[in-house]
Each structure stands twice: as structure tokens, then as C-alpha cells.
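Quick one from the shared queue. A colleague (R.T.) flagged Probable deoxycytidylate deaminase as missing a structural entry in our internal table.

Convert sequence to C-alpha cells.
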Amino acid sequence: MSTDGFEASDEKTLNVTLNGLYIEDEEAKAGNSNQAKIIRSCNYRDLEKKREDYLEWPEYFMAVAFLSAMRSKDPCTQVGACIIDTNNRIVGVGYNGMPIGCSDEILPWGKTSSKPLETKYMYVCHAEMNAIMNKNSADLKGCTLYVALFPCNECAKLIIQAGIKLVVYMSDKHKNKPSTEASKLMFNMAGVKYQQFVPKKSKIVIDFEEIDWNMSV
Ligand SMILES: O=c1ccn([C@H]2C[C@H](O)[C@@H](COP(=O)(O)O)O2)c(=O)[nH]1
Ligand SMILES: [Zn+2]
């Protein structure tokens, strides 16, 4: 008998249980072979129940923010942002990068030059700004922003003016900078809430080589 190309042989055991039908060998029992994957995909009982380890909304939105950050060409700090509406629909994403039409090959990426015009700070559009500008809905009133880094004061102004009501951030690494203090002052005055993201999963991995397309068989 064959299951997904695996032949039952002397070295393997054909198992028929209430959970389904599978071929098992020592490697599979140890959980480190293809056969182990097939055991999971043939586990009929699991396939009839709702998955429990799906991504919850906050993890999903923060992951989208971090995935967006991977597009950034900033060699030092990559920031991503994801805006969602009150129906949990993504209405804008962005990452820090040079303005449209301004070559990121020509403009500087460094930050240490004593000449301000030769630093990135003069030119980079922040992730929050790009997410707001990229919005695909009429407005952002009542929306939530997921962002990798606590917003600077310039982004805080944009967030407030856009009508965003909640900021969920991952890192507070600039918490002692005046720009962060200014952001908090403005958020407090304008009634924009902010909270640090508390991940439920320590890792979210997309490993294209490890995807087991047989899982849905
Ligand atoms: O609210 C913010 C603050 C900063 N950024 C971007 C702007 C720059 O590209 C980097 C910061 O660079 P450092 O080398 O860490 O100073 O982050 C942002 O997108 N949003
Ligand atoms: Zn900013």
C-alpha cells in the first residue's frame, strides 16, 4: 500500500487508527522526517477540527509591520507600520524609505556626517508617514496603527491629524528622547492611546523551503 508515495515496507509500520492511516518509522516517531509530516497530514481528526495555533489579529498585524520593514533600505534601523480599521481590515502599510522619485542610490544613508545634508535624516520618509500616505480607504478615523518603533514627534502629529486612535508599538528604545516625550504629550492631549505589543508567540517563521504542501491533502 502507498500513501503519498511512501511504500509500506519491513522497516516501516502501517498504522490504522481512529486518527487516520499512516506509515511510521523510527525517524518519523522521533519527529524529524518527511514521514512525520505525512503522519500529521493524514491525521483525519485534526483536519476536522479548527486549528488552535493560528495567528491572532495583533500578531498578524505586527507581523505585517515587520514584514514591511524588511523592504527598508536603511542600513541601521528598519521600521514598518500597518494601519487597520475598526473591522480589522488593513488600510495602509509602509516602511522607512526615500521619497518617491528621489533615488535611494544617490541620497545618503549615513547618520554621522557633521553636514546635515549628508545624512539620511533630511530625506527619509518615516514608516508611519508612508503607511498613512498609502491608505486605501477614504480616511483613517478610529484606526489602529501597528508599528515597530514608538513614533517620533513628527509622525505623532500625522497620526493625530489622520484620526488614528490607538498606536500599538513594539520597541520603546528611544523612550528618553525629547521626540518620544513630545509624542506622548501630544497623544495624551489628543486622546490617542498607545500600548506596547505583548507577543504571544516568540517567533513567526516563514521558511519557504520547509512549507509542507501535503498538509492540506
Ligand atoms: O517614528 C519613526 C522614527 C524613525 N523612523 C526611521 C527613520 C530612519 O530611517 C530610522 C532611524 O534611524 P536611526 O539610525 O535609528 O537613527 O527609522 C521611522 O520610520 N519612524
Ligand atoms: Zn517618525
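Strands lie at 2-3, 6-7, 13-17, 20-24, 80-84, 90-95, 144-149, 166-171, 193-196.
Confidence is low (pLDDT under 50) at residues 1-25, 33-42.
Added to the table.
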